[in-house]
Give the backbone structure.
Amino acid sequence: MREEIRTLLAIQDLDMGIRQLEDRSREINQGLEAIRGQIERDERIIREEKAKETSSKVRSKELELEVEDKKNRIDKYQSQLFKIKNNKEYTALLHEIEVMKSDIRVIEDGILELMEEGEGERDLMEEAEADLERARTRYREEEQKAGDELGRIESQIAEKQRERVVRAENIDPDLREGYEIIFVRKPDRAVAAVRNGVCTGCNMELTAQVQNDLAREEMVCQCENCGRFIFLPED
Ligand SMILES: [Zn+2]
């Protein structure tokens, strides 16, 4: 096997390792982000429910005052009833009292409804609070673990990159550039073995000419179909 191919294979090995480590690091960060998203959602629910609770309390208070006001007016009307001599006026005032009483019933139903809504909102809020607490605990644990693992990944990447620099110094810059372009285009691998005259990168059969060049090992060969650098494995 040509020395350049050996070097390219080593670089490819390092590049794949670096890519895997970077993928893992992305995955870890996405995991943390998902928990942060959960925390933000819970915090928003709690904020919204608190705001609803406050406005519903204000509204309840308003309605209670309205009821009180109407009750006071009923008392006043009732005391007026005794002083009225005119039958028509008496009936009118009685009717007024009935209307007022029915208004009170409607308002009291409204207050009850607000209370029931409030209970539902409180349940939702308690649920969100418990959920938030769990998410925060999980985040603290995961952040600690993630921090440790990310630190390890970072130093592993740095080590591979240092090794890559050394390897890359030993290879013709054009060849290295060619490899890098193919590695981006063919992310599975840029250097592929040839088995039974077939490029294992694209599974196409190589021409007799290329197979011949490959066997003679006088130059670095590339697959005519996929452009990958090719080699005959030694095993
Ligand atoms: Zn190929």
In short: The beta strands are 191-195, 198-199, 221-222, 229-231. Helices lie at 3-81, 87-169, 173-185, 208-216. Residues 178-231 form one domain. Residues 199, 201-202, 204, 223, 225-226, 228 surround zinc ion (CB under 6 Å).
